[in-house]
Amino acid sequence: MNFNVLTIFPEIFSVLNTGVLSKELGKSFFIDCYDIRKHAVNKHGQIDSKPYGGGEGMVMMPKPLKNSLKDIPKSKAGHVIYLSPQGKKLNQTKVVELSKKKSITLICGRYEGIDQRFIDSYVDEEISIGDFVISGGEFAAVCLIDAVARNIPGAIGNKDSVLNDTFSNGLLKGHVYTRPEKFEEIEVPEVLLSGNHSKIKDWNTLNSLIQTKLRRPDLLNRVKLTKKQKKLLEEWESKDIL
After folding, report:
1. Given this model, what pLDDT does residue 7 score?
2. Strands of 103-108's sheet in order across
3. Catalytic site residue 71?
4. Which member of 112, 126, 146, 202 is catalytic?
5. N or C: the chain end with fewer CB closer than 10 Å?
6. Where along the chain do the CATH 3.40.1280.10 domains lie?
7. Is 132 marked as binding a ligand?
8. pLDDT for res 165
9. Architecture of the domain spanning 182-241
10. 55 carries a ligand binding annotation
């Protein structure tokens, strides 16, 4: 899979050279950064200007963006995404959908945004990573690339790690524990030490449901629970069995 990134700060993406996904960078997926300033409108490297109609800040001009987009071979441009607070909020369903595409081009905005005419003419989709403001689209693009790349076949050695991630089934992941068995007088739940795989599976399923209900009850309204999940949750609601 190819990720093309239009940015004025290509060095930010060096962070993706670290961590578990870095081993597959250049194998399962590729990242090519295109510096928008190479198509600046003057020798001073200008790629932005004051907004028409007044207002604070600067707006990225459409021509440098268009010319940067033209640098990408047509066969590699693929689905064009503008990282924007006005976009649809990114979630795991969208991440999995994007992971099935051959190529994605990410437009990283700065300042007060980019000229709407470029968006209307060249952008397929606007995506937001949340209801908050960050300094530029680069940080949102890094999040999106990391999330999408995890779901590319072969990118993560143990595919079950991805299948069991939080949000993979629409729910939060439950509590996890490791050694030692006792930490500051707090013991690991006995069932996890029992070796009874059926009971452990039920415990993990219920714990996931409980954490979702307590922390993100909105998610339960979007998920169709199985009969087993409904039964476990109903039993817990009638009596705290954890």
Report:
1. 98
2. 30-35, 2-7, 103-108, 79-89, 125-128
3. no
4. 112
5. C
6. 2-151
7. yes
8. 66
9. Orthogonal Bundle (1.10)
10. no
